[in-house]
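Project channel, design review

CF: Before we commit to the Sphingomonas oleivorans constructs, I'd like one complete example in the thread so the newer folks can see what an input/output pair looks like. Taking DUF4089 domain-containing protein.
RD: sounds good, go ahead.
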Amino acid sequence: MPEHSTIRDHILAQAAALDLPLDEACLPGIDSNMALLGAFADLLHAFPLPPEREPAPEYRP
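CF: and here is what came back for DUF4089 domain-containing protein:
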């Protein structure tokens, strides 16, 4: 996940690409949520899987 200062840049770029208006007051919450989700993604990426495990073709809870 990008460093904290670039997370905000990423948020603003994605919002602009989607033509999504963002209230400046919401940016700190979005910023911290993106950092938290990035930490969760890092945990998932660090989990070792044997090579014979293939991704599921579709998600079924």
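RD: helpful, thanks. DSSP finds two helices and no strands in the chain.
CF: The mean pLDDT is 87.
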